[in-house]
Amino acid sequence: MDKIDHTIINRLQQSFPIADRPYLQEAEALGISEGELIQRLQAMLEHKQLSRFGPMYHAERLGGGLSLCAIRVPKEDFERVTAQVNSFAEVAHNYARNHEFSMWFVLATETPERIDSVIEEIEQLTGYRVYNMPKEKEFFVGLRFEL
Amino acid sequence: MKSRANNNRPNALDRGIIRCTQAGLPLVPQPYQYIADQLGTTAEQVMQRMRQMLECGIIRRIGAVPNHYTLGFRGNGMSVWDVDDSLVAEYGRRIGELEFVSHSYQRPRFLPEWRYNLFAMVHGRDRAEVMQKVELIAALLGKDNRAHEVLFSTRILKKTGLRIDQ
After folding, report:
1. Which residues is A67 bridged to in the sheet?
2. B11 at interface of A, judged by CB pairs closer than 8 A
3. Which of A44, A130, B68, B105 is the most exposed place for a label (fewest CB within 10 A)?
4. Is 50 exceeded by the pLDDT of residue B79?
């Protein structure tokens, strides 16, 4: 990555135009050609310097349910509970964390109502209480990231 | 937060656009035309629906998402805070304005075992830097910080993209 890549990341984190030739528009502002901008974005995606380029969707506003859940799983039971929790297609991410609340996962369901029933199923299967922590208010999502 | 009235629910064309851009915006000179061709509609229609989805918040933004990890930001900690419910909105907003915070949310407490109602994801080059930044948040909260902890992930147990039904 060079200075131009850094400038591209800094600039395109904020927004990208909805226009007939959006890459051309941004490339002109960056002082490079349209082809070069496209090629650099492609390379940064390939090298995983960018994890995504494009629209970021707001999951709940697509009509589905989304929640962060936690379980206090003792060490000796961790592998069994991991396999059981991960077996649910609705579990999108699952992380082990260094805390008594040791397992944290995101549930994504097709309807908001499904969240509660999936939680009940997980509780029945694992034998542990699931702490359902949906966001009550969102203050900020995003990361300004200067390179 | 913007309203989420039912008329803001995505329509059939929106769902097609979402499907076509799940992997990202096409890297071709006319990406909206490209999407339109896939869906049998016009670029004008696609652009109009995408503007509408941006407007009502179905699309948060269009742009580049840097990969913190490969760019050297290897630390990230979930900081959790116990703040009086009457102050959480103001502090949540101010903490969200800090440039090393990627998410700032209010979530429910479960007393007595879980007292924290404010969550802020903190990024740094390593855990030590994350802890320094957490101290900045603690300083911002001052005496209104009743307790806090930082949870680091020790293992990714599962990671899939969010599924979007067709």
Report:
1. A107
2. no
3. B68
4. yes
pTM summary value: 0.80
B93 touches A at CB < 8 Å: yes
pLDDT of residue B3: 43
**Average pLDDT estimate for B42-64:** 95
Quickly state the pLDDT bin for B66 (edges 50, 70, 90).
confident
- For the sheet with B101-106, list strands across it: A131-132, A65-71, A103-109, A91-97, B147-159, B75-82, B118-124, B101-106, A137-141
Residue B51 pLDDT: 97
What was the pLDDT predicted at B159? 78
CA dihedral B36, B40, B42, B48 (to 10 degrees): -70
Cα maximum dimension of chain B: 59
Residue window 43-62, chain B: list those with CB within 8 Å of chain A. 43, 47, 50-51, 53-54, 56-62
Which stretches of chain A drop beneath a pLDDT of 50?
none
Q: What angle do CA B32, B35, B36 make, to 5 degrees?
A: 85
| Domain boundaries defined on chain B | 10-55, 75-152
Domain spanning B75-152, CATH architecture = 2-Layer Sandwich (3.30)
Cα B133 to Cα A6: distance, rounded to the nearest angstrom: 23
Task: Say yes or no to pLDDT of B166 above 50.
Answer: no
Give the domain A59-132 fold: Alpha-Beta Plaits (3.30.70)
* Runs of H (alpha helix) within chain B: 12-20, 31-39, 43-55, 88-96, 127-141
